[in-house]
UniProtKB/TrEMBL annotation:
Signal peptide: none annotated. GO terms for biological process: cell redox homeostasis. This is Glutaredoxin domain-containing protein. PANTHER family: GLUTAREDOXIN, GLUTAREDOXIN-LIKE PROTEIN NRDH. One of its GO terms (molecular function) is electron transfer activity. The chain crosses the membrane at residues 31-50. It comes from Micromonospora inaquosa. It holds the Pfam family Glutaredoxin. Residues 71-128 form the Glutaredoxin domain. It comes from the Bacteria. InterPro entries: Glutaredoxin, Grx-like_ET, Thioredoxin-like_sf. Keywords: Membrane, Transmembrane, Transmembrane helix.
Length: 144
């Protein structure tokens, strides 16, 4: 579980250290702004930037019932973050599975990505797309 939060924790620690250095240098406003920037990065790199993750088994069951796609992702993945924010509210129309939280999800991604844990990986029905085009995926979510 700590692995999922490692980058976010690192950003917070760096932000506090930079802000403390600025504060001791007599620049509290600069330190405060820098701390705020680091906290924003920490939020973006944390699991909180994504919809509530579900297990791979739960996502597969739900997708079979409602036909919504499954998105396999991991915290700190720049491409996952780009996909997530390009979708906006449409992101809630997919089932999000954190591969660092669920070993079965990581195995499912390795099965379709040539043995690699390449994310984001999107599964639509019986079709899997590794690192999908964001515009294409947005259209798939709109039409579902």
């Amino acid at each position: 579980m700590l692995r999922r939060w490692m980058l976010a924790i690192l950003m917070v620690v760096c932000g506090v250290l930079v802000a403390a250095a600025q504060l001791t240098a007599g620049l509290p406003v600069v330190g405060g702004v820098e701390l705020l920037v680091f906290l924003v990065f920490a939020l973006l790199l944390s699991p909180w930037a994504f919809p509530r993750p579900v297990s791979a088994a739960e996502a597969q069951r739900a997708s079979a019932v409602d036909g919504r796609p499954i998105v396999y992702w991991r915290p700190g993945c720049r491409y996952c973050l780009q996909l997530r924010f390009s979708l906006g509210r449409l992101a809630r129309r997919a089932h999000w599975v954190d591969i660092w939280r669920d070993p079965a999800a990581a195995a499912a991604v390795r099965a379709v990505a040539g043995g690699n844990e390449t994310v984001p990986t999107v599964v639509l029905g019986d079709r899997a797309v590794v690192n999908p085009d964001r515009a294409w995926f947005r259209e798939q979510l709109r039409s579902s």
